[in-house]
Amino acid sequence: MTVIGLDDTDSREQGMCTTYAATLVADAIRETGGRVDRRLLVRLNPAVKQKTRGNAALALHTDVSPETALGLAADVVDRLAVGDDPRTSPGVVVADGDPAAVPESVRRFARDAVRDFHATDDAVKLAESAGYRHRGWRGGRGRIGALAAVGAWAAFEEWTYEQISYREFDRCGTPRAVDEDSVFAAAEAAYPDAWDTVDTEENQAVCVPNAPGPILHGVRGDDVNAVRSVAERIESEPVERTTLFLTNQGTDAHLRAGRLGDVEDGRAYRLDGRVYAAPETRAGGHVFVTLADGSGATLPCVAFEPTKRFRDRVRALRVGDELTVCGEVSDGTLKLEKFAVRALNRVETVVPDCPDCGRRMKSAGRNQGYRCRACGTKTAGKTEQYVERDLEEGWYEVPPCARRHVAKPLVRGGFDAPTHPER
Length: 423
Ligand code: ATP
What we know:
The chain is an alpha+beta fold. The protein folds into four domains: 2-155, Alpha-Beta Plaits (2-Layer Sandwich); 160-247, Alpha-Beta Complex (Glycinamide Ribonucleotide Synthetase, Chain A, domain 4); 255-346 and 388-412, CATH 2.40.50.1010; 347-386, no CATH class. The protein has helices at residues 18-31, 66-80, 104-115, 120-129, 142-155, 180-190, 224-233, 310-315, and strands at residues 2-7, 36-43, 56-62, 91-96, 133-136, 160-167, 194-195, 215-221, 239-247, 255-257, 267-281, 287-292, 298-303, 322-330, 333-343, 347-350, 362-363, 370-371, 378-379, 383-386, 394-397, 419-420. It has a nine-stranded mixed beta sheet with strand order 5-4-1-3-2-9-6-8-7, with helices on both faces. A five-stranded mixed β-barrel has the order 11-12-13-15-14. Helix 1 (18-31) packs across helix 2. The chain is elongated. The relative contact order is 0.12. The model has no long low-confidence stretch (mean pLDDT 95). Adenosine-5'-triphosphate (ATP) is lined by residues 7-8, 10, 17-18, 44-45, 48, 50-56, 89, 113, 116-118, 141-142, 144-145.
């Protein structure tokens, strides 16, 4: 088996994308009589600044020789890769052998590429020490993603599917002609085996990208037949080709366990804390809430405006609620992707009502408790009262329209508390 890793062949201006380049390499392999057994679409650290959009890298598992593989991939990159875009820095890495049996160092490199940062030199050194062929263009930064894609099959246990359908090339750049009713009907029929196809509340066909580029739609899910059938049922302009990818999308592969006081920018965490400062809606509609933990550390968290109705969940939090939060830390603030309510603070302290007449009591002076002006009744202090909450225990998430590629939708299951999935 030969593994081809490919990354950074896309350009903002031309709106190309690396999945398309991988598809062209697969075609070239087939034209030479070779076989492609698997195509991986691997999402890497979403905090990487150089990414064009979703920080995707691609791998093909094939039976052609490593020399042929490198030659075919290099031809496609030469053909596509967008000479004038200085931000494009393509890379190809080719490994000989079983993708499940890459060296431990390569497996670790792939794992870390989703959670951390790598340098091109380290990727090149590691590829060479593993005996892999590689080629870079304009600095070849894409070899980071390409090597991670080579190691991905061994690095990740959980895989989902995306059926990507491409536009006819001449139409790229024009508005996509997709019948939305057919998207909603197909999504409904296949849910939850196919997820994040639409956002029913925002009335948005999430599987149809807005960005320029050759993708007409991409249908994600846990079941091959479900994603295929949704793609087939969508009525649209002609589909030039359609391809199934195995992906680490929707798996939370980017999250690491951490503690509130130890977080670093550019990494994504799962953290426990207690609401320390009440939620606050700021300019632009972004909702902030600050958490604290037992050590005294605090961390601001934010639900940005595009997370839409998720912000109502955050606004419903109260000081004292115990949470687990998930998201990437950027500029010292955690960008919420989901959170679990572990315990709700259902108690508030209020000025007591008079036990005799029921009127609200008034302060009897500093540190002197409360007194009823009508009856003269006195009490020593405030009293506790039950608060009705419109949150429940369990997990809440951003809606499909705001999901990050790698974030796991609640509907996929496997969470440690009840879930409140968005669809
Ligand atoms: P598209 O979605 O259109 O394919 P993209 O968002 O995947 O684009 P790229 O153009 O591929 O973005 O750019 C990402 C760059 O970052 C690549 O060169 C890749 O090698 C590099 N990269 C990926 N992961 C890491 C990481 N963890 N540390 C450092 N660099 C990384």
